[in-house]
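Look at a sample.

——
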Amino acid sequence: MHTDLVGPTTTKGLKGERYFMLLVDDYTRMTAVCFLRNKSEAFENFKIYKKMVENEMDSRIKCLRSDNGGEFTSKEFMDYYNNHGIKRQFSVARTPQQNGVVETKNRTVQEMARTMIMDSKLTDIFWTQAVHTTIHIQNRVMLRKNTDKTPYELWKGRPTNVKHFRVFGRKCYIKREDGRMGKFDSRVDKGILVGYSSTRKAYKCYNLRLNKVVESINITIDETGRPESKKEENKSMEQLFEEEDEKEEEEEDEDEENLREVEEHVQQVSPNTPSKRVQKNHPSDQIIGNKDAGVETRKRICSLEQTHLELLSTIEPNYFEEANKDEFWNKAMDEELDQIEKNDTWELVPRPKNKNVIDTK
C-alpha cells in the first residue's frame, strides 16, 4: 500500500478541507482519497480505511510506503504499525521517486482535477469534488500496466460500468423531494453536477437553492457546450443560470408582443368576420343569447370592469355557498345546466333501494 498527503491548498473546500490523502493499492492500483482539515486527521482516516479494506477484501494490509512526513511518523502511527504487524517503508528525503507510484498518481490527479475546474468555470472551492471525481474515473478507465483490466475490475473481480459518466460541472435540474411544497412551487431545483456518490447509486449535485451538495438519482443534466468567449471565462454557473433566465424572460416578452400585434391586425382587418372554422347554420334551439349578434368571444364582449372581476374569480370556491355569491360563477353554472338539459345528458329516475348515491363536485 502506498500513501501520500497533499496540501495545504490555497482555497478551502466546501467543508473547510485543506488536504487530501491518497491511498493506492500496490497490486491493483485501486485508489482511495480522504479529505482532511488538518494533517493530524491522517491517522484516524487511515484506521477507518484499513478496517474497510480488510473487511471488503478479506485480507490484511502488510506494508505501507510513504514519505517522511510527520503525519506518518508520529508516535501513535508507529505504535499502530507495530501492534498490527504492518511493515513500514519510508522514502529518502528529497527523493520522491522512491515512492513513485503514489507521487505519479498525485500529479495526474491534480492535473485532471484542475482541468475539470477550469473547463467547467467553477470556483476553486469545488476542488474536493473535482479530486473525488478524478479518482472515481481513473479507477474505472485507466488500465493496469501489463494487463487489459482496470483497477476497479482487478479490485472487484467484475467489469466496470461507465454508462453513468457525465460531464463534470454542467448545469442540472434536481427533482425536489421535500414534502413542504406548495401547489405552484417549482418541482425542480437548479444545480451543478459535481461528481458521483461513493455510498449509493446517485449523482452529487450542488443545489443552488440549498447552497450545499446533495445526492440524487432523479436529475436531468444539460451537457451542452460551455461558452468559450473570454468575457464569460470567469463567470460562475450561478451567474450563467441568471443570464439564461433573463434571456428566456426577454424571449417570452417578445413573443407576447408579437402575438398582440397579430391579434390587433386581425381585428382591424375583419373585426366582425367569423372564423372560417366556425360552423354555420346552427339549430336555433342550440343558440344561447341573441342569434343575430354573430360569433363573439369573451375577450371582445367583456368590459374592463368585467375583466377585473373575472380575474378576482379565478380561485375556485370551496363550497357552493361561496360560488353562489359570485355572479360569474352563477352565470357559468346556468349556462352549463342549459347545455346539459338541451343535450339530454341525464334522466331523472327513482333512487334504487339499498344503493349509495355518488356525489359530484
In short: The chain is about 40% helix and 15% strand.
